[in-house]
Each structure stands twice: as structure tokens, then as C-alpha cells.
Amino acid sequence: MAVVRCRRVLHRNAIEPGHRSETLKVRTMTHEHHLLTGATGFLGTAFVLELLDRRDAIITCLVRPQSGASADSRVRTAVGRVARLFDRTDLLPHIDERCRGIAGDIAEPQCSTDPADLGRVDQVWHLAACLSFKPDQRKRLFELNIGGTEHAVALADRCRAPMFNYISTAYVAGTRNGLILEQPVPEDSDTHNWYERSKVHAEALVQRSGLPCTRIFRPSMVFGHSRTFATTSDGTVYGVSRAIGAACRELPDTVGAVLRTGSWQVVGRADSTLNLIPVDRVAAAAVEIASATTTSRIYHLTNVNNCRIGDLAGALADVFGIEEPEFADTRDDFTDVDRLIDTALGEYRPYAFGDKRFDVTNVRTTIGDGYLDYPISRSRLAAFLRWHTVNRATPRSEAPRG
């Protein structure tokens, strides 16, 4: 990928996460104006909080207004809620002072936003996306993830924003295993689903956009806060957890009984791996990189510690009080209960195979890999899943479009 240099900004060395000294809170780009899409979603709210914590920045969030709620009130409500969940109530005054929501929709040209209403924009962060893995969602995925990115790029161009940050996914790697480099992905690569495919095409669109400086951030499977375990997401591992929990709860005398006392199987391999990264670590690393460099690059925001599928199965067993499953290569010997669980896991099944190791060289050379070093043991993973099970986030299939 070509390296593009833009105007210089002050470089800051990263410090180890968990040691948030005053050094970390140095304001590096005073009064920068950041424009965000998807700011009311799980990842978006974390980004807003991170920007508020680190900079004297003004943050404008493009949000679809809803009946009875303005764009501005939606942003303040969503970000305020997550600030409390993440134990960052110290940021609540900053939400009122430096964050606003205005009406916008990525499904519309230029996100249905007049650049004149925005003033000077220093950085655009495009996070809004449809996150569904369901095979019947192709049209919607392409409209929002590809078309929405095209509209966000057009708005950034009209605003003459010097920096465009696109939040993609590390799983544009698709069906590949082994070492996955921080490099462009061919548009004809094999993928597991339409979500991954839409992100591959959206990345290519950003790379050929002609904008002065583009960063593509690729988080892996994002889950709760690294310290409080809180989440507003129901995707990825939480989707698996919801499926198992629903089976135990809704069919306690049949499926639940087998899972608790008998033997059951799932297709997959215990030594296959997933890459899970806490939401606050993703936001912290991305904002740190945006402070440290103006180079157009791809960055894997992925955990340097993979998680075994076997540990996920063990954590689910601990949370729901069930037996651990046996892993099988095929469904040939499945019982009726096995088939029911297999169907419930649906779109998550492809991730039960494989071993991806994500290269983080670009991140490491820019800010170090401290934010990406978060070991996930069986007991720690169980703590994340237990928080979600007890607190039951409202199900969603996508991040906000606005």
C-alpha cells in the first residue's frame, strides 16, 4: 500500500494501559473538530469517550433522528449511558460541553449533511455499519457498508477533511488462516459471509478515494470493557452465549436437561482460535494512532493473545452450569439436540474452525502493542459472558447508520 504523508502532528509515545497517568491525558491537538458516524453504537460510544478523555476536541456525531428524540439527545443519552457502564462518570460534563449530534444518514448521498453546517473538520471517523452475519441481509449490508462508506468519503471530500479514519474488521481476512498481514485484501478474496465481503469492498473504496490521508483500522471481534466487562453489544461471542442461554431457558426439560447432564456435540475444533479485543482497547489504540502519525496505513486492532474455542466452550459451561461439548468435524452423529443447537448457532459456525494470527507491525511501530496485550483466560471470558447474561443488552443486528 502506498504511504501518503500529510501535515505533521505531535507524536506521543504510548504508555501501558492500566496506568492512565496525566501523561496520557496531554491534549495533543487542541480544539480539533472530529466528525463521527455510528456514534450511538457500541464501538462508536467508546470512541466518543476516548476522544473526550484525551483531547480538547469538539465532536460532531451524525445520527438519524428518531420519533420523539433529536439527534443531539440520542447522542447524549447513548454516550452518557456507556460512560456510566464503563465507570467514566468523570466524562459526563465533557459530553455536554464538547459533543453534539446533528441529523445525518449514511444511506443518503453525503450522509444527507450540508458541509456548511459542519464548519472546519479535522478528522472523520466512519464507524457506522450493518453488522449482520445473516445470509439474507446481502442487500442491506452492501447498501450501508459499501454505499454508506462511499457517502462518508464524499462528505469528507466536500468538507476537505485532511484525515479519514475507516473502521473495518480484521475478518476481511475471510477464509485465510495463518499470519494475516496489515495489507490490502484483494476484492475477489474468499469470505465467510456478506458482512466480511462488504467490508472488503468498502476498504478498497477508501483506498482509492483520493482523500489526503486515510487510515483503515481493523478491529477483531470486539466485546466488553476490559475492566468493568460492560457491553451494549449482542454480537459475536455474545450471540453464541445468547443461543445457548435461550436453549437452556426455553426448553429446560429437553435441550436444557441434555446440556446440563448429558453429552452433546458441536462442529468445530477445540484448538481453533478466535481473536477477541475489549472495546476500550480498540478505541484507545485507534485514537492514540491518530495522535501519533499522519501516515495512510492499515492497522490491525487485534489482541496479541488469541482465545481458544475450547476455552469459549468452557466459559459457556461455567456461566450456564452445563457440560462442555464434544467437538466433531461433521454432523454425521448428531442427535436431535445437537442439530437444534447447531441451527441456533447459525451464522457463527464458520468461526469454530481456523487459526488466524494477526500481524500488528504497523501498530507496534507507531504506538507499541500495550493496548493490544489482553490475555483472555477461561475465567476472564466467563466474566464477560456472565455480565452480558445478567444484564441482557437489547438485541441489535447493526450499528447505527447515522
Explain the overall architecture:
InterPro entries: FAR, FAR_NAD-bd, NAD(P)-bd_dom_sf. It comes from Nocardia terpenica. This is Thioester reductase (TE) domain-containing protein. One of its GO terms (molecular function) is alcohol-forming very long-chain fatty acyl-CoA reductase activity. The protein is of the alpha/beta class and 402 residues long. It has a domain of 249 residues: NAD(P)-binding Rossmann-like Domain (Rossmann fold, 3-Layer(aba) Sandwich). 37% of the residues lie in helices and 14% in strands. The chain has 12 helices and 15 strands. The strands form 5 sheets. It has a 7-stranded parallel beta sheet, with helices on both faces. A two-stranded parallel sheet has the order 6-15. Helix 4 runs parallel beside helix 5 and helix 6 packs across helix 7. The longest helix is centred in the middle third of the chain and has 22 residues. The protein is globular and about 65 Å long.
